[in-house]
Design goal:
- The complex is a heterodimer.
- By secondary structure, chain A is mainly α.
- In chain A, 57% of the residues lie in helices and 0% in strands.
- Chain A is globular and about 30 Å long.
- Chain B is of the alpha/beta class.
- Chain B is 43% helix and 16% strand.
- The chains are: A mainly alpha, B alpha/beta.
- The A-B interface holds A 39, 43, 46-47, 52, 54-55 and B 65, 69, 72-73, 76, 118, 121-122, 125, 128-129.
């Protein structure tokens, strides 16, 4: 499984969305991506990529696309 | 409390282990079977534990957020879990109102409050996944009662009391307990630094009639770290010999 596929899988399983919805997904745009859902999402991403995210990055992680940028720029996850 | 291995197999992280209460907690946890990541600032200050494989000295400053993150990554890689966090590192600077500098306010809050919040945030990542964990914050009787000349210190410890109660409520559904210990007059270097005359004056307000020992606090930490306290959370436990401030 590629890193992109892992990343997508986390979102799909966390928020019960279809892959077609992912690119436009932003924080609080769907009921499941609330603050609790956000912390669960971060936990799943940390598990998937074996990283530990900093608080500022968790706060900045405001969208599906933004998350890709944060992971690649700060956590050396190649997509 | 007679079980000699109350923390068998548990992974603990304790800050401020070089002396006093922190050192007593470190020794007590090791004696009870825990593997302890012992945070100290001064390199070499835990050399006398070098023969104990369960003691993992970590030389760092708790206000250095990059080091804090690295430490939790280290624990994750080496142990894969964390069971107990003890936020003991702290600093005390007494000054009368009107003589408290901004620099001292920021330094004291950085160690006594901000670092505690950072540590809780990282530790809770483990605890949420495991659905278990115990956080023990060292507050102070001054944070509960207040004291003349200790506005700064007591306010930081009051913050520790408040954050303990909030974290306990937020983390309870994740099987995580959060409690604080509020020591009174404990016989440490920090206390002795106020001079014998002042120590004796303090002692007159301790109904038990003696200063507390670091081991007295460590025993309470042991209880809170162990499964004996599995239904105890959001509490501030005084270890003060019925001291009146």
């Amino acid at each position: 499984m590629t890193n992109k596929e892992k990343y997508e899988k986390v979102f799909i399983e966390s928020f019960e969305v279809a892959s077609e919805q992912l690119s436009n997904l932003t924080y609080q745009s769907i009921p499941l991506w609330d603050s609790v859902g956000h912390m669960n999402l971060i936990a799943s991403i940390e598990d998937a990529f074996d990283i530990m995210m900093e608080t500022d990055d968790i706060i900045d992680f405001s969208a599906y696309e933004k998350g890709l940028a944060i992971l690649s720029e700060k956590y050396d996850v190649q997509f | 409390m007679c079980n000699s291995k109350m923390l068998d197999g548990k992974i603990a992280l304790v800050s401020g282990c070089n002396r006093g209460i922190g050192r007593a907690i470190l020794e007590t946890f090791l004696n009870n079977g825990a593997i302890v990541y012992a945070i100290v600032r001064t390199k070499g200050s835990l050399n006398d534990f070098v023969s104990n494989a369960n003691c993992k000295p970590v030389y760092m400053d708790v206000t250095d957020t990059a080091s804090v993150k690295s430490l939790f990554m280290q624990v994750k890689k080496e142990q894969g879990r964390l069971d107990v966090l003890v936020n003991n590192a702290g600093m005390m600077r007494d000054a009368l109102i009107g003589m408290i500098s901004r620099e001292h306010i920021e330094q004291t809050y950085a160690v006594n409050v901000f670092a505690v919040i950072d540590m809780i945030q990282y530790a809770s990542k483990f605890f949420k996944r495991q659905q278990s964990g115990s956080i023990i914050n060292l507050a102070s009787i001054m944070g509960v009662q207040g004291n003349a000349g200790q506005l700064l210190y007591s306010s930081t410890k009051g913050a520790v009391v408040a954050l303990t109660k909030s974290a306990a409520k937020e983390l309870a559904p994740c099987g995580t307990r959060v409690n604080a210990i509020a020591p009174g007059a404990i016989d440490t270097d920090m206390l002795r630094s106020i001079g014998d005359a002042n120590v004796n004056k303090l002692l007159q307000n301790v109904y038990v009639g003696r200063l507390g020992l670091p081991a007295d606090v460590a025993k309470t930490a042991l209880y809170l770290a162990s499964d004996l306290s599995e239904y105890v959370t959001g509490q501030v436990i005084g270890v003060d010999g019925a001291m009146i401030v």
